[in-house]
Amino acid sequence: MCGIVSYASDKDVIKRIMTGLKSLEYRGYDSSGIAYIKDDNINIIKREGPIKNLDKVLDYEDEAYVGIAHTRWATHGKADDINSHPHRQGKITLVHNGIIENYAELKKELIKKGYKFKSETDTEVAAATIDDLYNKYNNMLEVLSKIPSILKGSYALNIICDDKIDTIYGIRKDCPLIVGLSKTGNMMASDIPAILHVTNKYIVLDNDDIVVLNKDNVKIYNNKKEEITKKIKEFDNTEEVISKNGYDHFMLKEINEEPEVVKKLISLYTKDGKVKDLFNIKKYKNIDIVACGSASFAGQIGKYFIEKYAGIRVNVYFASEYRYQTNFFTKDTLVILISQSGETADTLAALKLAKENNIDTLAIVNRRDSSIAREAKYVIYTEAGIEIAVATTKAYLAQVLVLLFLAIQGNKKEKDILDELKKLPNIMIKYINDYDYFKIAKLVKNKEHVFYLGRGIDYYLSMEGSLKLKEISYIHSEAFQAGELKHGSISLIDEDFGVISVVTDKSISDKTISNLKEVAARGAKIISITNNKDDHFADYKILLEDYGEVLGPLSVIIPMQLLAYNVAKLKGCDIDKPRNLAKSVTVE
Ligand code: F6R
Hints:
The chain is of the alpha/beta class. It contains 20 helices and 27 strands. The strands form five sheets. An eight-stranded antiparallel β-sheet has the order 3-2-4-1-10-9-11-15, covered by helices on one side. A seven-stranded antiparallel β-sheet has the order 5-6-7-8-12-13-14. The model has no long low-confidence stretch (mean pLDDT 93). Fructose -6-phosphate is lined by residues 292-295, 339-341, 344, 347, 391-392, 467, 471, 584-585.
């Protein structure tokens, strides 16, 4: 949700900023812009649309020595050049990730003081607010120490002040910001991939930390303006992050990494047929799983496993609703937050609500050092490696596996399930290679509407299959409980309607198949991802082996992802960066 990069160096400032910015395009691609200092002047260039539009008009030979840049996911005001960052007011030029919630009231006051605004953004108001404070205090450290009490909402800001143009200032609240350190210069960025072409050494900033950085030095202060020392970390998987490794898309690369993710999680979190001492959910009587999008669909599968194997009641909520509903917290409640990025604003807000109510919080998170990982009382990492494609694949799978581990701990089937699970990597490799997904995708490509149907765990899987299909191929798709369809929604079905079904759960497959026959009787053509060899309920089957109650459902994940991928590819969609989306949603 917006990416920022800044860099101060003697050399290649524009080039390195742009390389970093391109690696953050997954955070937003509505527009982009850069401000850089050359011959003591500030140059600001902004372009609507993806970063390549900005790239085309930049002169890489320009000898800049300081720059800040931004790739935008539009919130306030449409995606045009004027609303693009950087924004400038008075002596202040800045880029911003986040939302300034009190921007309207600040703007009113600033207009009274004579400020004029060109854009519709909250960011330009932040620039004017900082300029106004700077006029009063004439000292940027003083100004930035005041920011948390003035700007409400969330922000990561990189700022240049005209009075000290060799310096970049940074501050954050509830939006990620790291500092990259190198001998050739220093950087700030929203995420690690943006610094790896310069350095693998970085510092993770906390809320209200203030950064004052130039090409030779980085100083970090707390909100009381005291200089502080922070741990320097090293990232050691640089190659893995920045290359597609020969695949056409990051999404395809990440799907192909799933067998290794399974192996890694088995070796990290299990030993001798038992789950290692991960976290004891048995202490709790109620569990709320709170997450957004695919992470919440992983949560639904977690609910299924935890209720079945641990016997604990679980409710799954979308994080965007959780804060505004009536919650029934008791001393026996555990709130599990699931997030790939660890930065999703709604999930973070739900976590804070649980903490305020003194409820234990367990985060299941992919990104180390992320806000959710650091704020939760307990954390388990999903260890899927950095995911670049906007549509999640390997991180979703890893979330499901961690939830399975939590659920089966101490159950009499624990050893059998873990023994079975060891087969999953090879099953996944087989399903990556065995099917002609392109051919199957042709059956879906021209559909305007699709129902993804299933019952029980097959329905929970369908939720993710359906989201994957719609978000990258732009075909309208809904997951539906197969048995519920006849209570109204079946009226939508005709011969043009697409139906994809998931049928793996033997205990209920007869019922699902009856529902599918009802749909077929209304003319719909059905593609089924199933382990049922015999029954003729589908026009096309992606036939899976019958792997039993855990492996069976888990083996559906790769075919669902590859089907969506191939439909999007056939339609010529921008698979890694679907329209209107961003990977890390740091606004509510
Ligand atoms: C869909 C997808 C999203 C995310 C959701 C939560 O492919 O990736 O639905 O699952 O935005 O993001 P995280 O997991 O980062 O909290």
